[in-house]
Amino acid sequence: MSVTYAQGFKAAGVDAGISAKPGKKDLAFVVNEGPLDAVAGVFTSNRFCAAPVRWSRAAVADGHAKAVVLNSGGANACTGEAGYEQSHATARTAAELLGIEAEDVAVCSTGLIGELLPLEHVTAGVHAAYDALAAGEQAGVDASHAIMTTDTKPKTFAAQGTGYRLGGMVKGSGMIAPQLATMLCVITTDAVVSAGQLQAALGVAAEYSFNRINADGCMSTNDTVLLMASGASDVEPDPDEFNDLVAQACASLARQIVGDAEGASHDVKITVAGARSEDEALVCARAVAASNLLKCAIYGNDPNWGRVVSSLGAIPEQDAAFNADEVDVSINGVQVCDGGKPGRDRSEVDMTPREILIDIDLHAGEQQATVWSDDLTHEYVNINAAYE
Amino acid sequence: MSVTYAQGFKAAGVDAGISAKPGKKDLAFVVNEGPLDAVAGVFTSNRFCAAPVRWSRAAVADGHAKAVVLNSGGANACTGEAGYEQSHATARTAAELLGIEAEDVAVCSTGLIGELLPLEHVTAGVHAAYDALAAGEQAGVDASHAIMTTDTKPKTFAAQGTGYRLGGMVKGSGMIAPQLATMLCVITTDAVVSAGQLQAALGVAAEYSFNRINADGCMSTNDTVLLMASGASDVEPDPDEFNDLVAQACASLARQIVGDAEGASHDVKITVAGARSEDEALVCARAVAASNLLKCAIYGNDPNWGRVVSSLGAIPEQDAAFNADEVDVSINGVQVCDGGKPGRDRSEVDMTPREILIDIDLHAGEQQATVWSDDLTHEYVNINAAYE
Fold it and tell me: In this complex, do B381 and A296 lie within 8 Å of one another by their Cβ atoms?
């Protein structure tokens, strides 16, 4: 159901001729018709952040935004002031059509870094999308298609709270890394909530979802997650329920990214328990998630726990306390490493499921963390070597 | 010429039946016949360091060693006290044959993590290698073959100082990462030098060679570099010349590892200049070297500088100072990124050479550092998914 599941939102997705793929929808427009226009955003921390990120960060800083324009087919990153002017012009075009200020329009772009967008196509696309704006299910679906790049399927979310709704869409399949994946995400709600409530809910939810997936360790220049509230349900939600729904939306969308990561044949859930602190558990889980050797082994259906522990062993002691002789590793429920030594025979591990569970116990404390990753396949290399 | 190029050293390489590959030489023996027995060692910092690393670190701590036994076909890592006892037994067997103490024999192993070695094969192999010990060129070549795993060719070094010689061999092609590659390396010299001189020379040389290559970002449990001096030339070398020769040996052997990295089709030299400090330059070079997306692009012969700058941008500001708007990137001499924006057209870059030069200028200071890396290819995935 995507972003139009929540009341008060219209959307569209059109083929603006930005992407090199003929006939592909490549421009999405999401409009918040109110009565509220509260917004919260989370953006990439990449120091080469793209022009649309700079624009949108400023646009949502006051907690208000009435629309978002998103395009695939070009990241508009590392494009200097000319690129920033393109993001500004895109917002201006949308704002003029809606009769609002450009500063109330966020802009998101995804695609190749280092090239300007074909601005006439973007402008014409915003006009076409404006004409196509609708509140129905198809409009939300169209928008979720328009933001796809190497994604093989649209990724959406819809859930009902007590008297209000939450909907969302995300794109992302490459450059998926700890500090936000290469992704554009818009989540909408018709609940009556303030921008502060939105930002609090989104900050926590993003930390435990988008910031805990790692497909290829590469941080994007364009990551953007926006959470917009229209208030159209006229319902003030229970804060805990609302936070929980936002967390569910982010978790679901992040999990869908992992499930559609470039070339992946396995989704890998890495849980590190028995850590002194959650941060230390996270450092360990991320180190394992980043191991190319482990990712290749999983592609080859080998529960190679030696590649798990050698990743852990590379972590400096001050970053995560554990004794190498006490570490246990289970893969899909079989404890293959027992106190840093061989445990049950790895031939007992069933590697056929798509989902691979790696459970590590450091035996150093009580805290834990989970990171999702993928395997490293021929198809990943194909996609990233022979792309266009 | 390998390790027997220096006078005072004998070596052998035999098929001991440790490796699963029929007929493959898998056990090397290097003996220092003196008159000196000075040694220096550098070892992995992985916290799951293998039994032979624990054994050898202790064995060379006093600056004396008379022999090394090296095996492929099994890493003897994460094997607990039983594994340590295997390393000890291997040293004891060699020591008994040579009429020396076990504590004067270093042991190195490489192969799969998490399994004990077939000790009878190792013991029989040490006996066979002892019988085959010789000082000639072929003996050094045999030893360099016996330590290979996924290496496609032996890697050796030989150089002449003023009245003395230096020889060496190394293995390594996977688990190649910043804090020592997955490698076993033995360098020999007949110069008259103390263990302290050896350690000083090796420490600096390893830092600028083995610690500055990164094929797949994975730190091994077994890395070992040994530098042994026999004093057989009776020549006390000029310290600067000697240090320089040791640096040349390490640089050459490290470069050979990059050139034979698993599945690589390009060797990538990443130089970061204009940094405030050498450490900050190194942080940047390593971040670029670790980008899977960049490595895939290079395999696809695309000079994708967006993947260079997005890697740089992921570095926290406190780890490396630079202004994203001032960063230049050249690939094979063509400045494709000029001040964070597009420079010359990337179609001008000739990507056909095996060696790809990525030159980054941060314009933040005067210091620089170089890291060698490789591309990420189908063959890398093959080797690490469908290995045996």
Answer: yes
